[in-house]
Amino acid sequence: MVIHYYKEGDLVIFCDTGREHPKTYKFINDFEANENIPVIRLQYEGGFEKLIEKTKAIPNQFKRFCTIELKIKTCRRYLRSKGIMKYENFVGFRFDEPQRVKRRKQMWKQVKDRFPLYEDKIDKQQINAYWNSKAYNLEIPSILGNCTLCFMKGKNAIMSILKSYPELAEPWIQDEKKIGYTYLKDISIEQLKQIAQNNLFKGYDLSDISPAFDCACTT
User: How far apart are CA 146 and CA 195, in angstroms?
Assistant: First the structure.
């Protein structure tokens, strides 16, 4: 089954937080090379680190200004700079994610969100089958998508990630030390790393983990 909604003239935009897994950047390059579709790469000036320095705050489950600033508004600013004020925004929520579709809030009247996968009843199984038919793939478990240690993934997922990839912790640890707050309530990323590296912690299979909380990080 071919899932391909791109039409000539559409803009494919990747908003880079600077906290993506290295394989994500490889996937973007592979996508361009294999599909012959250009990807516009955007980044908030200074990236994730500059944002928290500017706000003097650490984002969390209830104050997710990282998604708003690094993705949604960064994309919006770029389009407006090109004179594009009114457009359709394709959101990749699947048919088996109706709660994400219902919770999505329109931020601007000039922007209409569309959910083509949901509208065409495309579920996760069909998505996986599609990408497995390709000559390239993301090459990492889906839990490593978006920001590597995003707080929306939850403590168990983050610890399981750090059991296999302890090197991912450092920038998140430095954020918390610099600002004086933690991404998760009552526990730091440094503490989660210490637990993850303890031989008593078995962790979970990364291919079987889902984020603890729903997010809208699709831009």
Answer: 23
